[in-house]
Amino acid sequence: MTIAPIDTAVLRTEFRLFRREPGAVFWIVLFPTLLLVILGSIPSFRDADTALGGLRPVDAYTPIAVLIALIMSGVQALPQVLTGHRERGILRRMRLTPVRPAALLTAQMIVQGTVALASALLALAVARLAFDVRLPAQPAGYLLALLLAAASALALGSVVSALSRTTKIAGAIGSAVFFPMMFCAGVWLPVQEMPHALARVVQLTPFGAAARALGEAAAGDWPGWTHLGVLAGWTVLLTAGAARWFRWE
């Protein structure tokens, strides 16, 4: 699997196709913010919690909402699109045109990454305006952790696509990966509240590390190099796996 130079025509086409998928638009762009609004509307979520180091639950869940968008885009949406193109023979037919299949892969990763990052910005804006959640006090560190998390999510989605011959298999594998990654991101229990032994294991996963890195940057600290290293390591490992196993036909 190789990443081709950006083909603007293919990129525009893939963006148009994405806009025509209301399910993808809802789950990637709107659902993370909607979930944050629902949780933030619960009065107890707006009270400081000593178990979270004095943070309010809505403060702790804002980075989680950001990660949900990345997980949705990388693990659920990307494999379905790429596997669908392969299953329908689109990638094979593209070999007969001046546009290489790798250009489609590049366009899809840009589309999914851009949409996920836009969703993250929407969640941050709504959290700030609706619930007075402070913007990240360490914006450079937050951005670095966010970009590494997005790269990890897309690399993971590429592996799922590489291992899937059909969209049904991609959906099954994606779902099997999706829920553990949501748990590691802290959707059901923030990483800060997990038992110490469990938290140490979770922080070795890409989204567990991302949750801690984003939380640290939001609080004003530079993300721990251990967490950033875990994200970078997973990105390299998953990208190598996708390159090894991906097939155009």
UniProtKB/TrEMBL annotation:
Superkingdom: Bacteria
Protein family (similarity comment): Belongs to the ABC-2 integral membrane protein family.
Protein's cellular compartments: Cell membrane; Membrane
Protein name: Transport permease protein
Organism: Streptomyces mexicanus
Topology in the lipid bilayer: Multi-pass membrane protein
Record field: transmembrane: 24-42, 62-82, 103-130, 142-163, 170-191, 225-246
InterPro entries: ABC-2_transporter, ABC2_TM, ABC2_TM_bact-type, ABC_2_transport
Gene Ontology BP annotations: response to antibiotic
Domain ABC transmembrane type-2 residues, every copy: 23-249
GO CC terms in record: ATP-binding cassette (ABC) transporter complex
Alphabetical list of PROSITE patterns matching this protein: ABC_TM2
Record's keyword terms, sorted: Antibiotic resistance, Cell membrane, Membrane, Transmembrane, Transmembrane helix, Transport
Any one GO molecular function term: ABC-type transporter activity
Lineage: Bacteria, Bacillati, Actinomycetota, Actinomycetes, Kitasatosporales
